[in-house]
Every structure is written in structure tokens, then in C-alpha cells.
Sequence to fold (328 residues):
Amino acid sequence: MGNADLRSLATLRDVPFADLEGSVVAVDAHNWLYRYLTTTVKWTSDEKYTTGEGVEVANLIGVVQGLPKFFEHDITPVFVFDGGVTDLKSEEVADRREAREKAEERKQAAEERGDAIEAARLSAQTQRLTDTIQETTRDLLDILDVPWYDAPAEGEAQAAHQNAVGDADYVGSEDYDTLLFGAPRTLRGLTSKGDPELMDLDATLADLDLTREQLIDAAMLCGTDFNAGISGIGPKTALKEIRAHGDLWGVLEARDEHIEHAERVREFFRNPPVRDDYTDEYDLDIDPDVEAARAFVTEEWEVDAGEVERGFERIEESLVQTGLDRWT
DNA sequence: CACAGAGA
DNA sequence: TCTCTGTGG
Fold:
């Protein structure tokens, strides 16, 4: 099982940052943060991303190091967080731990009854992005005046929806399944060195001569985050089979195979839980308080100033150069 | 998730 | 050629 199978089906092309100027990108916050939580932590000594009390703050370093890329190219990010997470700001510490333990229990239960969707969803909530990380990331984004909001369920699906209805020009994510969720244009490698990579839904469907529904079916045959694929079926065979039999059911019947919870997973990709009342929760005109952010990161959360100084400098420089502050 | 090497 | 598995990030 692997989502990377989708890469060989997707229509991808590099786009220079210059072409992205002035655009709005709905960023899958979980995906974006995860990148820093796995890489930053790996190459930095413990004391630099952990407070004296052992609280992980690698996410703060990640935010400060990652945001300049957007600002320098006059790209406005809107971070979309996964839903289902309780509003941590207003809850007691005990409640948070209880919620996490309950989520862990529900995850176990979901796994036992074979509910992959629920298990994956709860796993994302209980593992990498701890309560503190969720909270401090939001706080820092607020101080930097960077827009964000919570999705009802998958941030990826919500970001795809925002892109589809035209409230964002692109989705920002490394994942290929934004394609399945219907994101018209996904930017990959937005944090990496070179030019980003554009994954285009319409071009993909046109090149493959498939409908989105058929693409979802093909992906499910290969295996997704929410279902195991059919052994022996990779992207090539999946395409061939979907073309031969029309849809998932046709293929499964012809090969006498079965996919657990196929109906649910299929429907989940086709019509995921999303919300439409998000635009009034943020303002696209960004006016960061860099000094306050510096204090928040280095003093309140004791992050080694050397780890974030360059990032803050770049943010300050970009404010002047890209006209992000033109409204102020 | 990317890449590489084994195995069919 | 295509799929699967393992490793590293």
C-alpha cells in the first residue's frame, strides 16, 4: 500500500515561484508541520527544540523557518488544521490529557473493528501533533497575523474544497491524495529548495481519460491511507482494470476480490466532510508583529535564538520587499 | 514520502 | 515492465 503510486498517475510540472506571486495557498497544516517535526528534530540537538520542562517546540522553529518562503514570493498561506481536535485554548490540562487518552482508546477500538478511516483520523490526532504543538502553532500564527482555521475533519479535504470553490488558488501539501479529494491544483515541495511542483487535477484526468470517481477507484485498488490495496495491483494494472471494468465494483467482481469498507472510503474521498463558513475567520492582509513573535518563541518558549533569528530576519526583509505590508 | 534493489 | 520491500528522511 502506498500513496506514492498516485505520483505515477498524476500530471505534474514544475512552476517557478515567480508564477505564484499574489496567490493564496490553502496549506494542509498537519502535513506542513509534520515535515518540520521529523526533519528539524532529527538534525538539531534536543535542547534546541525542547524547553527545560521537556516540551517539544520544534514546530515553532518550523513555522519561523517555513513562513519566509511564502512571504518572499508574495504568497498568502491559509493554514488549515485537522478538525476533531478540541479547542485547547479554553480547556484544562486534565481535560486535554483525558481527551488524548480517549482518542487513543477510540483509535484502538477502531483498529480492532477494522475501521481504518476512524483509526487513521484518530492516529493523526494522537501522535505527532501533540496538544502543545497544536496550541503553540496557532498562537504563533496569530501573533504573525497568518490566517488559519480548523477543518471539520481532514485538513487536506478542506483545503481541497477551498481550492475547488475558488477561495484559494492552490492547495499546499506533499500528499498526492489531495487529487482524490478534488483539489484542482496542488503545490508540492513548497518548503523544499527548488521550484515547487504543480499537480493539476483536470490535466491528470484528461491525460488518463478518467473521471475523478474512476481515479479514486484506481487509487483504492492500489491502496490508500484508508484502505489496503489488492495485492499485485499497482498503478498500471489499476488503470487497465478500471478501464476494462468501468469502476471499482466491476474490477472487484471480475477478480473476485474484496476491499474492506470500500463503500465508506470511496464516499469519503468523493464527498468528505468540509465547511463553507471559514472565510470570516481570517483576514488575508497579513501584518505580522515580528517583535512579539520573537519574544513568544525565544523567551516564552525558550527556543535558542540562533535557531530562529535568520527566519525572523527574512520575514522582516520580506515585509519591505514584497509589499506584504502595503495595506498598513 | 523518495529512492533503490529484489523478484516476478 | 510492474510490483513489492526496505531504508532513510
Notes: Residues 2, 5, 35, 38-39, 42-43, 231-237 of chain A lie near DNA strand C (CB under 10 Å from a C1'). The CA atoms of residues 11 and 207 of chain A lie 8 Å apart. Chain A has a mean pLDDT of 87.
